[in-house]
Amino acid sequence: MQIRPGAGAKGGLFPLQELVLRDILADCKGVVRWGGDDSTVNESLFYIDAGPNEEWVRTVADKLRSWDATPGEGAGAEVNVLSPSRRSRADRLARTQRSD
Fold first, then answer.
1. In the predicted model, what is the mean pLDDT of residues 69-76?
2. How far is Cα 30 from Cα 96, in angstroms, rounded to an integer?
3. Using an 8 Å Cβ cutoff, are 45 and 5 in contact?
4. How far is Cα 56 from Cα 27, in angstroms, rounded to an integer?
5. Which of 16, 22, 29, 71 is found 20 to 30 A from 87 (Cα to Cα)?
6. What is the structure's pLDDT at 22?
7. What is the DSSP string of the chain?
8. What count of other Cβ atoms lies within 10 Å of the Cβ of residue 60?
9. Percent of the chain at pLDDT exceeding 70
10. Which pLDDT value is given to residue 67?
C-alpha cells in the first residue's frame, strides 16, 4: 500500500514521525515492511514481508485483532515511543530490515 503515491523521496518524515513509524513496525514484528528501508527508497510504501501461510503472520494478525476486544490496547492507546524498551526493539527491527 502506498500512502502517498509518487512520493518516494527519502527524508520526507520528521524525526518523531519516523520514531512512531518504527514503533508501529516493531509492534507488527517485521510482518509489515517500510519502503524507507529498501535499497530503492520509497517512504510512502508499506507492504507485507511474509507469505500468507507463515505462522508469524497469523500471530501478528491475532494480536492486532485482539486489540479491538481489549480496552486500552491498539489504536488510540497511549504509548511512550521514547521508552528504552520500545526504542530498542524498534531499532533492532530497523537494523534487520535495512540489511535485507
1. 71
2. 9
3. no
4. 12
5. 71
6. 93
7. -BSSTT---SS-S-HHHHHHHHHHHHHTTTSEEEGGGSSS--TTBEEE-S-TT-HHHHHHHHHHHHHHHSTT-STT----TTSHHHHHHHHHHHHHHHH-
8. 19
9. 85
10. 79
Question: Kindly report the CA angle at 40 between 18 and 43, in degrees rounded to 5?
Answer: 25
The three grid cell numbers given for residue 62, joined into one nine-digit string: 491475532
Cell of 89: 526493539
* Cα 10 from chain centroid (whole Å): 17
C-alpha cell at 99: 540489511
Residue 24, strand partner residues: none
Instruction: For residues 11 and 29, give the distance between their C-alpha atoms in angstroms, rounded to a whole number.
Output: 24
Please report, as a single letter, which amino acid is at residue 19.
L
Question: For residues 7 and 44, is the Cβ–Cβ distance under 8 A?
Answer: yes
Nearest-angstrom CA–CA distance, 23 and 17: 10
